[in-house]
C-alpha cells in the first residue's frame, strides 16, 4: 500500500493532531499484509475510528478506490486534517466529528479500523477532545477501546473485519475474550517492538 503524501501538513499542526508514528505505519503494514484477503472481500464501506491525520484511511482508500470510506475523530482539528490528507491524495473520505462511531449505530461497515489512545493513564486524563485524546487511554489504556468493542456488533457486517492496534499493557487477551463473547474469532496480523512498546494489530471476524 502506498504511503499517502503528507506535504500539505504544517509540522506545527501536530501540536493539535496526532502525528503519524510507528503505530500508524504498523496498522498500514498490517492492512497491506491482508491486501489480497481484503480484496477478496470486496468491501463496500470502510470506517476508520479516530483517524487523526488521516494517513491510514487515505492509504486504505488509495488501495481500494471503489470502497466508500468514512472516518471519525473526537478532535475536530483531526477531522479537518483527515479531509485535507484525502483531498491532497486525490481520494474521498467522508469525515465526521463524533465520539467513536456513536452516530453510526445501525449502519454497517465491511471494514473497521482503530488505532486507539492506548497509553495507560489515570481515568481523569482520558476522554478529552484535544491532543490528549491521541494517547490517554485511562485504566489499562483501554477505556476508549472498550467502549468501541461494545459498538462493534452493531456496526460491523457479519462478513466484516475489525482491525485494532494494541500494546501489551492493554492486555490483548482480555480484548480477545470480550470479542469472543460477542462471537468474534481473532488473529494477530502483525506485531512489532518499538522502543519500549510491544505493538500488535489484531483482527476480529465472524466468518
Ligand atoms: C493514536 S491516535 C491515531 C491517529 C491515526 N489513526 C493514526 O494511526 O495515525 C488516536 C486517535 O483517536 C482519536 N480519538 C480518541 N478518542 C476518540 C473518541 N472517543 N472518538 C473518536 N476519536 C477518538 C484521537 O483524537 C486520535 O486522533
Automatic annotation (TrEMBL):
Catalytic activity: L-lysyl-[histone] + S-adenosyl-L-methionine = N(6)-methyl-L-lysyl-[histone] + S-adenosyl-L-homocysteine + H(+); methylarsonous acid + S-adenosyl-L-methionine = dimethylarsinate + S-adenosyl-L-homocysteine + 2 H(+)
A GO term from the CC aspect: eRF1 methyltransferase complex
Chain ranges of the Methyltransferase small domain: 36-122
Keyword Coiled coil: no
GO MF entries: nucleic acid binding; protein-glutamine N-methyltransferase activity
Keyword field contains GTP-binding: no
Keywords recorded for this protein, A-Z: Methyltransferase, Nucleus, S-adenosyl-L-methionine, Transferase
Pfam families, sorted: MTS
GO biological process, one term: methylation
Subcellular location, record wording: Nucleus
Function in brief: Methyltransferase that can methylate proteins and, to a lower extent, arsenic. Catalytic subunit of a heterodimer with TRMT112, which monomethylates 'Lys-12' of histone H4 (H4K12me1), a modification present at the promoters of numerous genes encoding cell cycle regulators. Catalytic subunit of a heterodimer with TRMT112, which catalyzes N5-methylation of Glu residue of proteins with a Gly-Gln-Xaa-Xaa-Xaa-Arg motif. Methylates ETF1 on 'Gln-185'; ETF1 needs to be complexed to ERF3 in its GTP-bound form to be efficiently methylated.
Subunit structure, as described in the record: Heterodimer; heterodimerization with TRMT112 is required for S-adenosyl-L-methionine-binding.
Family, as annotated: Belongs to the eukaryotic/archaeal PrmC-related family.
UniProt protein name: Methyltransferase HEMK2
Organism: Parnassius mnemosyne
Amino acid at each position: 500500500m502506498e504511503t499517502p503524501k503528507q506535504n500539505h501538513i504544517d509540522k506545527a499542526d501536530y501540536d493539535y493532531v496526532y502525528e503519524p508514528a510507528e503505530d500508524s505505519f504498523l496498522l498500514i503494514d498490517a492492512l497491506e499484509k491482508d491486501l489480497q484477503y481484503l480484496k477478496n472481500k470486496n468491501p463496500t464501506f470502510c470506517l476508520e475510528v479516530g483517524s487523526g491525520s488521516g494517513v491510514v484511511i487515505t492509504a486504505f482508500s488509495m488501495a481500494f478506490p471503489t470502497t466508500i470510506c468514512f472516518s471519525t475523530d473526537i478532535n475536530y482539528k483531526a477531522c479537518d486534517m483527515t479531509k485535507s490528507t484525502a483531498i491532497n491524495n486525490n481520494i474521498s473520505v467522508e469525515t465526521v466529528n463524533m465520539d467513536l462511531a456513536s452516530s453510526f449505530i445501525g449502519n454497517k461497515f465491511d471494514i473497521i479500523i482503530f488505532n486507539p489512545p492506548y497509553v495507560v493513564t489515570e481515568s481523569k486524563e482520558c476522554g478529552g477532545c484535544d491532543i490528549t485524546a491521541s494517547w490517554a487511554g485511562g485504566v489499562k489504556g483501554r477505556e476508549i477501546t472498550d467502549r468501541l468493542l461494545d459498538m462493534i456488533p452493531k456496526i460491523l457486517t457479519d462478513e466484516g473485519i475489525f482491525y485494532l492496534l494494541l500494546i501489551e499493557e492493554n492486555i490483548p487477551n482480555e480484548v480477545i475474550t470480550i470479542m469472543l463473547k460477542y462471537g468474534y474469532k481473532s488473529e494477530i496480523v502483525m506485531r512489532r517492538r518499538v522502543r519500549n512498546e510491544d505493538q500488535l494489530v489484531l483482527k476480529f471476524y465472524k466468518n
